[in-house]
Amino acid sequence: MKTLPAHMAVLMANIIFGLGVPVTKLLLDKWVSPMGYMVTRCIGAAAIFWLISLFMPKEKVSRHDLIVIMLGGLLGFVVSQTLTAWALTYTTPVYFSLIATLTPVATMVCASLMIGEKMTTRGIIAVLIGIAGAMLMVLMGWQGGRGTNDLLGIGLTILSLLTWAVYLIITRKVSTRYTAVTQMKWVFLVSTVAVLPFSWNDLLTAPLYSSATQWDGLLEMGFIVIFATVAGYFAIPFAMRYLEATTVSIYTNLQPIVASLVAIALMQDVLTWDKPVALILVLLSAYVAQPRRS
User: Among 134, 203, 250, 262, which residue has the least CB neighbours within 10 Å?
Assistant: First the structure.
């Protein structure tokens, strides 16, 4: 039964992505620009995935599939994550998390329009349960916007989640034919080539890579590269070999919950009744979304 490991993989990925939101905010506020942040992720992930691939059986990728993998990588990583980085420079993680809960809706609608995936009653109910869980937690802790330009940040967040939804859809079939390492080594290679020319100056002038650097900045970036990029983007294509795109996207609703739990651990928030209830609702939504086999 491969669906259980797939659920565990996408669960792990979204917990990591949830942790990555406040860590990214810390990096952008003090250590790197959005483009410096992106190019570091690209170079680090490309180097790690190509190194791992040297110790794995070789997979021959067809030209058509390679184009899909690279296009998907540009959308799902370069475009989506660059928009995320810029969004977090203008708005708060609370606003970002609230808007990000709409990812399953965007994925379901895009799947229906692009590949004719039927919007079942069960799927719609699952999405609504997941959104209810995430919005419950976020709205209970709502403090109002404190970003420098919340309207722009929210707009960038919407564009980010739309490109992520399209990535999940267009790479769904390719993900069933190749290992995650094979896919990701090409994704981050083309991402590095695409981003490096536009971020070279940001890389050279980033405080993180100057004499002003400190261990906290290096550890934060290490977490982003190793966990929020390599581990997270390894888990997603693995999960998509066995789960539908809409099911994978529903787990996105875990991210604001994780961010809240991090705040509790750092004594920036307190544990209230809505947080465990929200967690149960999000996990229930993923269970309901699974198609029943006769």
Answer: 262
Answer yes or no: pTM beyond 0.90.
no
CA distance 135 to 101: 7
Average pLDDT over residues 148-174: 84
15-54 in b/e form (b: 16+ CB < 10 A) is bbbbbbbbbbbebbeebbbbbbbbbbbbbbbbbbbeeebe
Q: What DSSP string runs through 219-266? A: HHHHHIIIIIIIIHHHHHHHHHTTS-HHHHHHGGGHHHHHHHHHHHHT
Q: At what angle do helices 34-53 and 80-90 cross, to 10 degrees?
A: 150
Q: Answer for the pair 194, 78: CB distance below 8 angstroms, yes or no.
A: yes
Averaged pLDDT, 199-228: 94
Tokens representing 147 are 């970003």
Phi, psi of 147 (to 5 degrees): -80, 170
In the predicted model, is pLDDT for residue 294 greater than 60? no
The secondary structure element, H or E, covering residue 21 is helix 3-30
The token pair that represents 211 in the structure block: 């004499």
% of the chain at pLDDT higher than 70: 85
